[in-house]
Amino acid sequence: MTAEEIHTNVEKALDEIRPFLQSDGGDISLVSIDNGTSVKVKLEGNCIGCSVNQMTLKSGVEMTIKKYAPQIEEVINLS
């Protein structure tokens, strides 16, 4: 998969999960994709102070991104 395809697929994954985050007053934005394996995102809105945001990041965001781009190894939230 090319870097452009990875970026497109990661954006598709974020578009899939975004409505769930927005329904709770949060959001997410893509910051960068490093080496084609590491995705950096920024949780926004109510997600910032949420006590379960790490669970959301791993169980929701990371799982969805890996569905679209299996070569992604980690998703990191930049606070």
Topology as a string of helices (H) and strands (E): HEEHE
Got a strand count? 3
Shape: globular
Distance between the termini: 29 Å
Report the average pLDDT across residues.
93
Strand order of the largest sheet: 1-2-3
Biggest sheet layout? 3 strands, mixed
Structural class label: alpha+beta
Poorly predicted spans: none
Strand content is 25-35%
Proportion in helices: 40-55%
Rg over C-alpha atoms, rounded to the nearest angstrom:
12 Å
Number of helices: 2
Write the layout of secondary structure elements.
Layout lengths: L2 H21 L2 E9 L3 E8 L7 H16 L5 E4 L2
Parallel strand pairs: 2-3
Antiparallel strand pairs: 1-2
Protein model, in words:
It contains 2 helices and 3 strands. α2 (53-68) links the parallel β2 and β3. A 3-stranded mixed beta sheet has the order 1-2-3, covered by helices on one side. The termini are far apart. With 79 residues, it is α+β, with helices and mostly antiparallel strands. The relative contact order is 0.23.
